[in-house]
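Board notes (copied after class):
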Amino acid sequence: MPVIYKIDVISALKEKGYNTNALRKEKLLAEGVIQALREKKPISWANIEKLCKLLNCQPGDLMEYVEEGEANE
């Protein structure tokens, strides 16, 4: 996958005070989205928007494009 996460999003959320239980309970992110983040899988633009709001950042702070061969290095 050529677009990868630059940071550990779950850890960044925890640093901002959002543990996974709070994210689910407050319906900020669905369980499937949380699991996708743990597994470094893609999520929807709507969820990227939510993350940017929660983390006060830009999408480029979360993700980057890398050439296909470089992503596995």
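Comment from the instructor: The longest helix spans residues 45-55. The mean pLDDT is 92.
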